[in-house]
Specification:
The complex is a heterodimer of chains A (615) and B (445). Chain A is built from twelve helices and 29 strands. In chain A, the strands form seven sheets. Chain A has a four-stranded antiparallel β-sheet. A four-stranded antiparallel β-sheet of chain A has the order 3-4-5-6, with no helix packed on it. Chain B has five helices and 30 strands. The longest helix of chain B has 26 residues. The chains are: A alpha+beta (615), B alpha+beta (445).
Chain lengths: 615, 445
């Protein structure tokens, strides 16, 4: 490797100007010809200083060596799309004499590969029998290879995310929507529109899974659904009753509307299909697309899960916290977050009668909750005018807090982690550093003032658009960099045809996840159930009367004739037993001081005079 | 101000004409594919259920014999040809693709005890109760010719089994002793005995071709080396072994079908402990045959069922039975490892799929990928209780089902007694004998 860091020796003493002449004249070399002159090999001009710098960044492999699987992942983080530079070490020649300028597999950055990794390598493999162990190791190696391959396939992604940058010192929050509309292309500018509907407002709105369709419902009974990209109206009705919330079911063909009394389901023609009287006085709706569950929270304090594929109520949970009107779902694990008037947020799954967790977030009541698409961060706002973000991995610690002059009544996360808050008639949007970082609440990324008070907020999936429902109608805002640029065609495809949608619907119904599997960690199903394993082992020992896996006591082998007297056998046995005993004592001695240190540390960081008496 | 909005050109995502395939852009980002594990679990569950739905293993029944089928033999060169010998001395040759009998020979008087083909597939040998060994041509006689054996050897005693060497013109018969014959000679090259009992079967090792194994009614399994004049070693089990079969991929592994309802897989280098005890049958096991892959074997039992065992598992993965199938006497796994044939008491030969839910015929590439994907999922989630229960469930005839219950109770009682004895005696005075070691009485060299 060290040799390659320096420029090739023959090339060094020949000045590059002279060097170029023979390269031009050089006739094409045939594959049967050997190297003609040593200078021919060095004919390529010496590496430019720029290239040399690049080379130092990149760990190089000696040529013609077998590259083990693990070393495919280079140890330094790199940018994948950087053009790979030429190597001065000669790669193996093909039959035609052409050289592969980029030998070996394409490098993959560790961070990108890490995103696709499923097995946590920091966890040690369980102490298991050699057969199981080798199988686990094989699985782990396979998994690593797969993650590298998936990371490599990122190169094929077609679209880049949007962005908005202010020129030196310009505050992006000062940029008005009109400026953005003027600056962007026509197709994007068409995504900004205002629906002036003062008569039936304030409006709640919902985008479909693919982000292609928009449904909205006004307090005074106006319900409409449209293909908002082409602005084609699908249906428009007046239900003659207050509409509390509206939500698309798994596809754009079905629409759930929480009306004053009961929950109604309409199709895309506006025909009422069902009136569900078991869900009454519903305030908020959430649809869990992979479980086909419609979660409803009601004024009576019940959280009800309705399975929309079979029309049965899966669970009706009493939250025992009065009126429920703050609800959101965690898209990562399908847990429902409810905000209560005592400042707590409780986490619910249909499998449990009790909340999975309760988090005390605010001093006053909770006004709005939102969870980001990776299920890592939760944003809450309360009556105490605070906006807080929480880490949902593990201990639910608050990450940041900020007091807003008015307090946010509505919150929404975008696919790339932007946080939008509706405060009165103003919408603020904050952004983080990258995709997986929490939004920093210091400075807003964008602000926008509307013609009425905000009543509903949602980022459109796969489009840089924020839909805001307010008392003056609907506004579709442009938020560059909000959405995931590359959709997966098999998961949710905005451009899908009717046939594709039908096929997707059948597949999705076939793999409907049972409601009992909703829990905080969705990967728990793939992990070893250690508790029941140990229980089964204990039961087996009890049934058999002995431990079949225990180590057999040492039995010395009989040696050569005459050397295997009873005394010597006993002596050898004794020796092994003593050795084992010594090992045990040594281990316990090693563990003891560690325990003491652990016990001593939290007591006092400062040394005390009384420490000398501690034994 | 620098701004870029996400703006897709629909032409890149929608097909140009109706004749094109739909464009499906992929993005493997895990946040776009939430609930990976639960969804895979549901897919695995569906795949397991479908496997049980499509489990239709029975393919055909070949009838024509006028007495119980006593022995079967595969053709070494042709997958479609199979030979069978019946209890009335009749030998039939079958074509499996047409599912009909192509030739019938009245070979012996009394039972046809054994049948084997020559390694080249040009002829086959039969032994019968009439104390003869006969060699027959595989092709039928020409027009006007008599159906006659190529050679006939008249022996002194009854022969109960025969097997042919895998590479040379040598075959072995068993009866009161194991005889090794040259095809050209009318008297054996050598005969070997160890004890005085009747030997029920003899088998050549397909890899180490000079090795033989035999089992006799005095409960032992004897191993021979053809190059020596005396047997190598023997192992004595609790009850007598009916047949043995060598693993075609691992030279030193063989499996013995025992009268005590179990099968024992032995490593011939260490006969004192079987590698695995396979238990699931509820009556004596009569025949066993390995799959050509050496990973699984099939066993035929007196309990009117056949079972398929993985070599390294003690429980069977599959059980086949029909209402009409009586005691199964012989079983063979075909050379393409896809089918199983069994001959039973009620004069029929049945053809089964080795993999019950397998789809026959040519698969399209999409079918193949779906099959492989489902297989992998089933493997991944096989230990989940719900999936395990569905995958393991088999319908059993009432007789077998009740017998299993009964034997479970008996076994439990025996085990309870053992545990009590262990509990109430001086520690160390009652040895703990594992299930594997329980059935081996002695190993003699």
């Amino acid at each position: 490797v060290g040799r390659m860091e320096t420029a090739p020796k023959p090339g060094r003493d020949i000045p590059p100007k002279k060097d170029k002449l023979p390269t031009k004249k050089k006739r094409p070399r045939r594959y049967w010809e050997e190297e003609t002159t040593p200078t021919a090999a060095a004919a390529s001009p010496g590496p430019s200083p720029n290239k040399k710098r690049n080379r130092e960044l990149r760990p190089q492999k000696p040529k013609n060596t077998h590259i083990p699987k693990k070393s495919r992942v280079s140890k330094k983080p790199q940018i994948v799309k950087k053009p790979r530079e030429r190597r001065d070490a000669e790669p193996p020649r093909s039959l035609s004499g052409a050289q592969d300028p980029f030998p070996g597999p394409a490098p993959v950055s560790v961070e990108v590969a890490q995103k696709f990794r499923r097995i946590d390598k920091s966890k040690k493999l369980p102490h298991s029998k050699s057969k199981t162990r080798s199988r686990l190791e094989v699985a782990e190696a396979e998994e690593e290879e797969i993650s590298v391959k998936a990371a490599r396939s990122e190169l094929l992604l077609a679209e880049e995310p949007g962005f908005l940058e202010g020129e030196d010192g310009e505050d992006t929050a000062k940029i008005r929507q009109a400026d953005i509309v003027e600056a962007v292309d026509i197709a994007s500018a068409a995504k900004h529109f205002d629906l002036n509907l003062r008569q039936f407002g304030p409006y709640r709105l919902n985008y479909s899974q693919t982000g292609r369709h928009l449904a909205f419902g006004g307090r005074r009974g106006h319900v409409a659904a449209l293909d908002w990209v082409t602005k084609k109206l699908m249906c428009e009705i007046n239900v003659m009753e207050a509409v509390r919330d509206i939500r698309f079911l798994h596809s754009e063909a079905l629409l759930a509307v929480a009306q004053n009394r009961w929950l109604h389901i309409y199709d895309n023609q506006g025909i009422e299909l069902h009136c569900i009287r078991r869900c009454d006085r519903v305030t908020r709706l959430e649809f869990l697309p992979f479980h086909f569950l419609l979660a409803t929270s009601s004024e009576t304090g019940f959280l009800t899960y309705l399975d929309v594929s079979v029309g049965k109520i899966v669970a009706a949970l009493n939250a025992r916290a009065g009126r429920l009107d703050v609800m959101t779902q965690n898209p990562y694990n399908a847990v429902i977050h409810l905000g209560h008037s005592n400042g707590t947020v409780s986490l619910w799954s249909p499998a449990m009668k009790e909340p999975l967790a309760k988090i005390l977030c605010h001093r006053g009541g909770v006004r709005a909750v939102a969870v980001d698409s990776t299920g890592t961060y939760m944003a809450t706002s309360g009556l105490d005018h605070q906006l807080k973000t929480f880490d949902l991995r593990g201990t639910f610690q608050p990450l940041s807090a900020r007091t807003l002059p008015q307090g946010a009544g509505h919150l929404a996360f975008s696919q790339r982690g932007l946080l939008a808050a509706g405060m009165g008639d103003v919408v603020n949007i904050w952004t983080g550093q990258g995709k997986a970082s929490p939004p920093s609440l210091e400075k807003p990324y964008l602000t926008h003032r509307l013609s009425g008070h905000v009543h509903g907020l949602q980022f459109c999936p796969f489009e840089d658009v924020l839909g805001v429902g307010h008392s003056g109608g609907i506004t579709s805002m442009l938020v560059p960099g909000a959405a995931e640029p590359n959709f997966d065609g098999l998961e949710s495809n905005p451009y899908r045809s009717r046939k594709q949608r039908q096929e997707w619907e059948v597949k999705a119904l076939l793999e409907k996840v049972p409601a009992e599997l909703i829990c905080l960690d969705p990967r728990a199903l793939a992990e070893v159930d250690v508790i029941s394993l140990e229980q089964a082992k204990k039961e087996r020992i009890e049934r058999l009367g002995y431990d079949p896996e225990s180590k057999a006591p040492f039995q010395p082998k009989p040696k050569l004739k005459g050397r295997s007297s009873t005394a010597s056998l006993v002596k050898r046995k004794r020796k092994v037993m003593d050795e084992e005993h010594r090992d045990k004592v040594r281990q316990s001695l090693e563990q003891q001081p560690q325990k003491q240190e652990k016990a001593a540390k939290p007591m006092g960081a400062r040394p005390s005079a009384l420490d000398r008496f501690v034994r | 101000m620098k701004v870029k909005m996400l703006s897709r050109n629909p032409d890149n995502y929608v097909r140009e004409t109706k004749l094109d395939l739909q464009r499906v852009p992929r993005n493997y980002d895990p946040t776009l594919h939430p609930f990976e594990v639960p969804r895979e679990y549901v897919r695995a569950l569906n795949a397991t259920k479908l496997e049980r739905v499509f489990a239709k293993p029975f393919l055909a029944s070949l009838d024509g014999h006028r007495d119980g089928v006593n022995c079967l033999a595969k053709h070494p060169k042709s997958l479609a040809t199979v030979l069978s010998g019946a209890c009335d001395g009749e030998v039939r040759i079958w074509n499996l693709t047409k599912r009909n009998c192509i030739r019938t020979i009245q070979a012996h008087e009394g039972f046809v005890r054994g049948i084997c083909t020559r390694f080249c597939g040009s002829s086959f040998f039969t032994v019968g109760d009439d104390k003869t060994v006969k060699q027959w041509k595989m092709d039928g006689p020409g027009f006007g010719e008599e159906e006659e054996p190529l050679h006939t050897i008249l022996g002194k005693t009854v022969y109960t089994g025969i097997d042919h060497h895998w590479k040379e013109g040598i075959f072995a018969t068993c009866g009161q002793q194991v005889d090794i014959w040259d095809e050209q000679k009318t008297s054996p090259i050598c005969s070997m005995t160890w004890g005085f009992d009747s030997i029920s079967s003899v088998k050549f090792n397909p890899i180490e071709t000079f090795l033989l194994g035999s089992c006799a009614s005095d409960r032992n399994i004897v191993l021979y080396d053809m190059r020596q004049a005396t047997p190598l070693k023997k192992v004595i089990l609790d009850m007598r072994t009916n047949t043995i079969c060598w693993n075609p991929m691992e030279a030193f592994i063989f499996t013995a079908a025992n009268e005590d309802y179990n099968l024992y897989t032995f490593d011939m280098r260490a006969l004192d402990t079987p590698v695995m005890v396979h238990m699931d049958h509820v009556s004596a096991v009569l025949d066993v045959d390995y799959s050509p892959t050496g990973k699984e074997f099939v066993s035929a039992s007196f309990d009117k069922s056949i079972r398929i065992f993985p070599v390294d598992k003690s429980r069977s993965r599959e059980v086949y039975h029909t209402k009409r199938m009586q005691h199964v006497i012989c079983v063979k796994w075909t050379s393409d490892s896809k089918y199983i044939m069994c001959g039973s008491d009620e004069m029929n030969i049945r053809l089964w799929k080795a993999n019950a839910s397998e789809k026959l015929g040519v698969l399209t590439s999409r079918e193949k990928t779906a099959k492989d994907y489902n297989q992998k999922l089933k493997e991944k989630f096989q230990y989940h209780p719900h999936i395990k229960r569905i995958a393991r469930h088999r319908h059993l005839p009432k007789s077998i089902y009740s017998q299993i219950q009964e034997q479970r109770i008996m076994k439990e009682a025996r085990r309870r007694k053992e545990v009590n004895r262990l509990k109430h005696s001086k520690p160390g005075s009652v040895p703990i004998v594992s299930e594997k070691k329980k059935h081996v009485v002695a190993v003699v060299k």
